[in-house]
Amino acid sequence: MLRDQVAILTPKLEQYRTIVRQLLTQYATYKPSHGDIETQTLFDTEHDHYQVFAIGWDNKQRVHGCSIHLDIKDEKIWIQINNTELDIGQDLADQGIPKDSIVIGFQPPYLRQYSGYAVA
Distance between CA atoms of 112 and 30, rounded to whole angstroms? Predict the structure, then answer.
């Protein structure tokens, strides 16, 4: 691979990857309150995409979708989607991630300045 295609491993990047994997693994242990639904984690450590995914059945309704999606880009953790009641940003901060290294990616860019987290 070319040098510019490979993420340079820094202690901060390794720390962020470890925290994200541990946190999402913990979240994946939470069982939905109804339905026959399996919760899975999907970790693409090569491209730094991390997801919690639900698959199964809720009565006659098929369940298949991403409940949490985090990316690590430019040494910041981007919360791309959070379809849960969990406060992922605060949980990351509680694990030692500075709030200026967390981006609420599902918020419009013009509102991020009011979030208490990084704008990008």
Answer: 29
Element (H, E) at 63: strand 61-73
Return the number of other C-beta atoms located less than 10 Å from residue 89's C-beta. Answer: 19
Which amino acid appears at position 97 of this protein?
I
Give the CATH number, domain containing residue 14.
Answer: 3.30.310.110
94 falls within a domain: yes
Q: Measured between alpha carbons, how far is 77 from 20 in angstroms, rounded to an integer? A: 9
Q: State the total domains in the chain.
A: 1
The token pair at 114 is: 């009011």
36 phi and psi, to 5 degrees?
Answer: -105, 85
Host domain of residue 49: 3-114
Radius of gyration of the chain (CA): 15
CB 42 within 8 A of CB 50: yes
Per-residue pLDDT tens digits for 53-105: 999 999 999 999 999 999 999 999 999 999 999 999 999 999 999 999 999 99
In a domain, 119, yes or no: no
